[in-house]
Amino acid sequence: MLIIGEITDINEGMVQLTSSDFDFVTPYLYIPQKFTLNGKSGFNLELGALAAAILTDDMTEGVFLGQLYNGVDTSPDNMSDCDFIQFPDGSSISHQAGSNTFEMNVETLKVSGDIISGGNVSDSTSSMQDMRDIYNSHTNPNGGVVAEKME
């Protein structure tokens, strides 16, 4: 049986819905994840969000399907061929199908390892290659030139 309701509790990786249509509170339901064995994944659910679940006929067990948009909480415009996540703090990440590009809107990006680029790296002023070109072509006030060029 398909149940549409409001998320009323989240506890240890399980969720509970309250359905006003059936005047019913579901048992705690497992939340499907992308990785659970060797890798781990998870996502934050929101208390009060509209959601769907499938329950057994006796309504004693079931599986959570996910949160739903409704007339008030609507999806972002023009997202039919885009994977998009917007977090409550306004940060977001998106991927347009076929673009081979991720777009992030974050205040700070922290990386725990090296960043290796096969292309150009730029900030709001110039690219790293432009900065290397300027460094490599400069001369010192005493007439010396750069001995070791930056590649």
Question: Topology, please?
Answer:
Elements: E1 2-11, E2 14-19, E3 24-25, E4 29-30, E5 50-55, E6 62-67, E7 82-86, E8 92-96, E9 102-105, H1 128-137
Antiparallel strand pairs: 1-2, 1-5, 2-3, 2-4, 5-6, 7-8, 8-9
Outline of the structure:
By secondary structure, the protein is mainly beta. Helix content is 7%, strand content 30%.
Mean pLDDT figure: 85
The Cα radius of gyration reads: 25 Å
List unreliable stretches of 5+ residues: none
Helix segment count?
1
Tally of strands: 9
Rough shape?
elongated
Structural class: mainly beta
Into which percentage range does the β-strand content fall?
Answer: 25-35%
Give the SSE string. EEEEEEEEEH
Helicity, as a percent range: under 10%
Spatial separation of the terminal alpha carbons: 63 Å
Q: What's the main sheet like?
A: 6 strands, antiparallel
Note down, in words, how this protein is organized:
With 151 residues, the protein is mainly beta. Helices cover 7% and strands 30% of the residues. The protein is built from 1 helix and 9 strands; from the N terminus they run βββββββββα. The protein has one helix spanning 128-137; strands at residues 2-11, 14-19, 24-25, 29-30, 50-55, 62-67, 82-86, 92-96, 102-105. The strands form 2 sheets. Strands 1, 2, 3, 4, 5 and 6 form a 6-stranded antiparallel beta sheet that branches. The longest helix is centred in the C-terminal third of the chain and has 10 residues, at 128-137. The termini are far apart. The mean pLDDT is 85.
